[in-house]
Amino acid sequence: MTDNPLSGALRIQAGACENFGSPFYGALLTLMAEDLDAGGPVKALLAPWADATLRRLFDEAVALRLPNAFNHLAQGGEDPALSAVWPREGVPLDVEAAWRAAKAAIPAHRAQLEAFMTHEPQTNEVRRTAGLLGGFLTVATETGLPLRSFEIGASAGLNQFWDRFRYEMGPVAWGDPASPVLIDAAWEGGPPPLGPVEVAERGACDRRPTDLNDPAQRRRLLACIWPDMFDRLVRSRRAIDLVLDAGVQVDAADALAWTTAGVAPKPGFATVLYHSVFWQYLPAKTQAGLAAAIEDIGARATAEGPFAWLSFEPAPDNMAVMEVRLTQWPGGAARTLAEAHPHGAWIRWLGEGAA
Ligand SMILES: C[S@@+](CC[C@H](N)C(=O)[O-])C[C@H]1O[C@@H](n2cnc3c(N)ncnc32)[C@H](O)[C@@H]1O
Known about the structure:
There is one protein chain. This protein is α/β, with parallel strands linked by helices. The chain has two domains: about 5-115, no CATH class; about 125-350, no CATH class. The protein has helices spanning about 5-20, 25-35, 40-45, 55-60, 60-75, 80-85, 95-115, 130-145, 215-225, 230-245, 255-260, 285-300; strands at about 145-150, 165-170, 170-175, 180-185, 185-190, 200-205, 250, 270-275, 305-315, 320-330, 335-340, 345-350. The strands form two sheets. Strands 5-12-11-10-9-8-1-6-7 form a nine-stranded mixed sheet, sandwiched between helices. Helix 11 packs parallel to helix 12 (about 285-300). The chain is globular, with a radius of gyration of 21 Å. The protein binds S-adenosylmethionine.
């Protein structure tokens, strides 16, 4: 272990990937860190960040850009030798062989790898709806109204049609049994109030939406999924097909401007503003502005036109556990409905929860 921040960032990311279900990325990132320490080709690929602090490396997710660049190359098929040893369902992982092939691919594909790494990773995790669902159900049941569903920081918009997925989570069986998108998280605790939900209107924005109609952007999105997490890949591919068919639309807009301009309570409907793993990317000033804008929308809510703020975001004291929080107006009562795995693999339902 060196005190080089780049090497440290790769090793910390290796541990996180291992913990969150990708032994392949865990081991690959460790080999990459060793290569960097030995002055191998990783050093040249990461040269743009040679002087970066650990803070900057995390903010820019550099330790994910690197393996994702090889994942992008392997999934695209431009280097058959790399694709042949990359993770495949049912085939034992061979990380050493994958890293040998990845290193061998660098000279011929350097430009593609470097171009990929100029962008921050853009992910969209479908199974986070496992945590959000309980919030939507709570609002629908408690208000008895059709929902208006508005998402900020929606990425590609894969979670915009959360009500068209099938949920099979212990005591929670909800949604269309014929849906091609199955959300099958492990569930602890009692169920949320299960009942029918009508989504009367929906909208979404992202500062930099992924356009699913563009094959290159679709490929980029899938390359950000850790390649030995096959269930995530399958779910994402199916969700892409579903939302494209349903007419997904994500406005390219800053969340604060979009919310202020377009989200307001409407009598006869429960308006829900929601987000997942988004808040941490906002500068403090935008966080404060958005919180104030949300309070302002809440102040305009009535019993006939209630408003809810639903979030799936890291717990204040533990970034590795998410909290599903719901604040409802009129009144502004806030509660924590659940704790969750960052990708939604498990949900711990707290029911009424603590404020
Ligand atoms: C980690 S992704 C999460 C995407 C999605 N919510 C999910 O859970 O899969 C964070 C998203 O927030 C978006 N974002 C960051 N700052 C934003 C802002 N000020 N306004 C709108 N979107 C923003 C990013 O572009 C990115 O798509």
